[in-house]
Specification:
The protein contains 2 helices and 2 strands; from the N terminus they run βαβα. By secondary structure, the protein is of the alpha+beta class.
Length: about 50
């Protein structure tokens, strides 16, 4: 986690969207305000990116 730049973009992945969103919700209440999550697994993201 960036300790000195709280606007750094942070993208989270989890076992599923629910887990990733839960962590994003926690982190966005801290100093980090630029937090997003991917609503799928990392494997699904890789498959989507390689399909292009």
């Amino acid at each position: 986690m960036p300790l000195d730049d709280f606007d750094t973009r942070i993208v989270l992945f989890g076992r599923d969207a629910r887990q990733a969103k839960a962590l994003a919700d926690v982190l966005s209440k801290r100093p980090w305000h630029n937090v997003a999550y991917y609503p799928g697994t990392f494997e699904e993201l890789l498959a989507a990116l390689s399909a292009k």
